[in-house]
Amino acid sequence: MTITVENLDFTYGHTPILRSISLPAFQPGEVYAVVGPNGAGKSTLLRCIAGLHRHSGTITLGNGNGAGQQGSVLYLPQDPPPATTLTVFENVLLAYQQRAGFRVERATVDLVSDVLEQVGLTEFADHRMAHLSGGQRQLVSLAQAIVRRPSVLLLDEPTSSLDLHNQLKMLELVRQYAEEQPAVVITTIHDLTHAARFADHVVVLHDGTVHTVGTPREVITEDMLREVYRVNARIHFSDDDTLALAATSAYVTEV
Ligand SMILES: Nc1ncnc2c1ncn2[C@@H]1O[C@H](COP(=O)(O)OP(=O)(O)OP(=O)(O)O)[C@@H](O)[C@H]1O
């Protein structure tokens, strides 16, 4: 399923939040990072694509008609799932079956166990959600998403509560998921080095508008960092696309 966004406008009350957003079509098998400063409108854009906000302009899913395809769009909010008394296994099972009080097939148990292994939560399968850390619950959230095999996966700051090891693991899993499904994956992310490493395309939002769209090399530049983030920085891309970024100073512009 492809996604197109054309002339998207969104306001909270009378305050414009997103203005005239048009983007190249999002393609299955590709990972898109949406970056930009706090308040730029990244989460709002994701929520519009997820169908959670009433907006003007056009967001098209699929080949133009979008009919019957809404169900395979999955949006993962920034907050991890609640600290309930359900176990990790039960949480992921419920996400898959979408109802309680059912007979569970052996194949379903195996599927849930596989997904828990992929995200590294096997040893926590019987732990109650209330006994997990915020980062562990964020991994449960990913497991709940992957088990449902959506065609479009929208992730809002999926690494915000994770340590460096789990950040890399989460992003590797997401990349692998996009390729294998194949799915459109769109993630908001603050760490530009992660965006450079894991995303095929980067969308830079600034004050509710699109500043630039392109490959990480095209988009993550010293000029962009100055204009959008108000940061002086030195950047360097290695041959393997690894980005080294050293911010030398932040500056404040007159308002
Ligand atoms: N419920 C709301 N009512 C009014 N304004 C809101 C509401 N939620 C967000 N906003 C405003 O919309 C703008 C965009 O918010 P959004 O959460 O999309 O930004 P963001 O780029 O995801 O920021 P961050 O990086 O801090 O998460 C901000 O100026 C914010 O104050």
Automatic annotation (TrEMBL):
Xref: InterPro entries: AAA+_ATPase, ABC_transporter-like_ATP-bd, ABC_transporter-like_CS, P-loop_NTPase
Keyword Disulfide bond: no
Residue spans crossing the bilayer: none
Alphabetically ordered keywords of this record: ATP-binding, Nucleotide-binding
GO molecular function list: ATP binding
Pfam families, alphabetized: ABC_tran (PF00005)
Domain (ABC transporter): residue spans on this chain: 3-232
SMART domains from the UniProt entry: AAA
Protein name as annotated: ABC transporter ATP-binding protein
